Amino acid sequence: MVKQQQGSSKQENFINELDLQRVRLRAAWLSFGIGILMLLMKMGGYLITNSAAVLSDALESVVHVIATGIALYSTVLIARPADRRHPYGYGKVEYFSAGAEGALIVAAAIAICYEAVMDVTRGNQLKDIDVGVWIVAAAGAINLLLGYYLIRTGKQTRSLVLEADGKHVLTDSFTSIGVLVGLLLVKLTGVVILDPLFAIAVALNILFTGYQLVRQSLNGLMNTVDTETLERTVAAVNKVRNPVMIDLHRLRAWRGGEQRFIDFHLTLPRYLPLHQTHELQHQLGDAIAAEFHNHAELLLHLDPCNNVLCRFCEVADCPIRHRPFTEKNEFTITGAVDIPVYQRGAR
Q1: How far apart are CA 147 and CA 158, in angstroms?
Q2: Which of 40, 93, 99, 259 is least surrounded by Cβ atoms within 10 Å, i.e. has the fewest?
């Protein structure tokens, strides 16, 4: 009966994951399609108005279409299961995606600045500003709605790629709002130089976005400390902790997509039989997997206790105790990433 229930649970998890993947792919395709539509609208707006600010918005849309294409491919690739060539899965591709997107954004910002500076030095003749205002306003509103939809869908389906894409779409929307303000000011004041100046301001904002994406990519590829994963891991361990779990130390974690790979050392009484330590290992693995919606793998190293640890051991009937229990060893993220507890204080 237990085996049947476990098999049923695995099947339900598989079906749920397929449903989530369908939602992710639908959102990624929608983002790609709307990205192409926005690019066409903005390029049309530039051809109509001859505005450097509108051109800057259109150039960012070029980057956005490429980025959403990468995000779409990443969403498909991340869904693939681990194989012999990629035993940790394909999750790391999202960091390559973010890095490529960031590099393209930086290139677009440089191109925008160049065009804007040329307009400042040689002058520029704007035309049909009214039409440009409506085109930019419509594009900004559509991107605003799309961005919030992608972020919400990304959170609901636990897709970091969709969340990142949604944030980029929101940035594109805010860029359009900046361009819109610039066009309106030119229309109201007649000061044409405001148009390239706003384009430069937009470029600087885009440049910062590109820098953030490149940094995020490098952090992921270099396995920079993921504090959120570490904190949630310690919390999961504390939920199932019992007196034989004496110390938790050398905790590490890295991410590949939504999959998390976690390892740490756990000190147990040295007299425990192998089958009991094996059960504890499974209990901890299940608790951590549940914390991360079954997208986490645990590699656990078990350490035997020594006499120094007696003062931290809460086992009431320990048959090899040398010292009384005097100090409670709380499992915290600070201690968990550190060296063993018995090496931290005076012996």
Answers
A1: 16
A2: 40
